[in-house]
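Sample 1 of the test manifest.
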Amino acid sequence: MFDFIAYPMANLILLFYTFLGHSTIAAIAALTILINALVLPLTLSQQKSARKMQGFQPELEKLQKKYAKDKERLAQEQMKLYKEAGINPMGGCLPLLIQMPIWFGLINAIRYCIPSTPLDLFQFSHHIYKWLPGVVGLVPLQSTFLGMDLGRPPNSVQWWSYSLPILVFATSWLQQKLLTPPTTSDDKSQAATMSQQMQIMMPLMMMFFTLQYSTGLSIYFVISNLIRLAQYYLVRRDRGDEKAGSKGETQLKQRKQ
Amino acid sequence: MSWTGLVTVGEILYAADLEQVVALNAADGKPLWAFPKDPKEDRRGVFTVTPAVGEGRVIAASQVPASGFLSQPKNVVWALDRDTGSLLWHFDGAAGQYVEGGALGGDLFIIGNSDGNVYALDVESGGLRWVFETGHRVWATPLIASDRVYIGSMDRHLYALNLSDGKVLWDFHTDGAFASTPALQDDTLYVGAFDDRLYAIDAHAGTEHWRFGSANWFWGGPVVYNDTVYATDVSGNVYAVDAETGEQVWHQPLNVPVRAGPALSEDGSQLFVGSQNGILYAMDTSDGFVLWSVESGGQVLPMPVVSGSVIYELMINGPHRIRALHADNGREIWAYPHVVEE
């Protein structure tokens, strides 16, 4: 189903492998950087949206205190605030949804380049772009990294391969924590509960996902998460230590005028 | 997922039939025995590897699926009694999947594994006699001749090993992985690789005689007859190449995905090629002309097997698993399992 993305990705891996000293890890890392560069506008808007939400936290807290006994009114006022500020509270999900085909394409691309079953390899043999320099004879790529078989899921024989899904969990959790707008302890709205659950559910899902697929995919997720964390800190540093709360209030006032 | 394989010895056909190894009467396809007898009760995994048949033994391999979350599938070699199909011994010491079958030589059974090793097992007991480690998966069936094992690896080497102890006699390095069994004639090995080349190599010294370029990978093994090498690439190009010089004699593009190498009729006049889209082709070995072709309804990924005037094909995802056809016109003789009309 995702082969229309997987074949070009697999060929890109082959090309990177050719020019990066025949290192599978370097080729996957290069593809990860390229994919992250392509989805940069999406991730930046996700991070911007999250920062904006953080900026409006004092306003949200005021509303929660004001309408503590009227949940329906609270939800209405919160939505009104989001609308006035031009924030989509679910805006963080869109970049994730758009990236789903990329993940599935990547799973197949790794399966083709470092195949564990012969039918995958046979299928890919008809989709190698032989006009690319140096790709003839490359497949299957070298599959061993630190004694792990990158084409196989983590397994008890190579027990240390389980460290990769754990790393995926840790980096995803950190990323979620930084990007998800914080909620106050007394915020019991549905959106806030969902947001809190997502903080733990998403990293857990990613971890179980990577337990089922080749360890090469875990490498992609770890590098990808690290890039986004670095990106988050770089953007923050460039903008200085903004007083998020006061900025949010100013923005809202400006918008109301 | 992999493909299955079959072999005929005398009047009996032995096949890896996914959940079973079966012995069929080659004349009418009637089952003689199966291992395990009841695969629903007695689960021995998925048999995809072409069985090796020797003195009193049939040796096959399967992958037993993981029994629970985080558990690993087991990869097992099974030695069965050739007459009854009863279990003699099994070996589960390899970490990876067995993709292609093994070969029998002397008192050893040699088989490659996806864990990158070549295993030599004692035919009598199943005990491990030696292991040879390569740099990548081993998805090729070895060729055993004159106390030597010739086996290719995905690490782009073709190895000549001493049969008795697995010591390397020579290794031949190319730009592409090896997944096919070499053909041997007059001390020359003919083998294709994933660098789109067919090689002729001195069997004693491991030196190259010639190389022949094609459009895509050679996955199936070539066959040699009357100083001509016949080989197919995965894009369905069939080549006849002069065994002495490496010059092309003829080329027939079938334009279909072909995984396995060709099979020759016993008199060398016909060449049979199975394709992934289910068509089996019979070609004239003198010029590559397609004499007939039949559709199977499945995917013909293993090499067809010829015995006398009958050709046997094994398919996956088809209405049948095995079919016996007349070699002269492709007409069906029998199919297994027999489909019962309701």
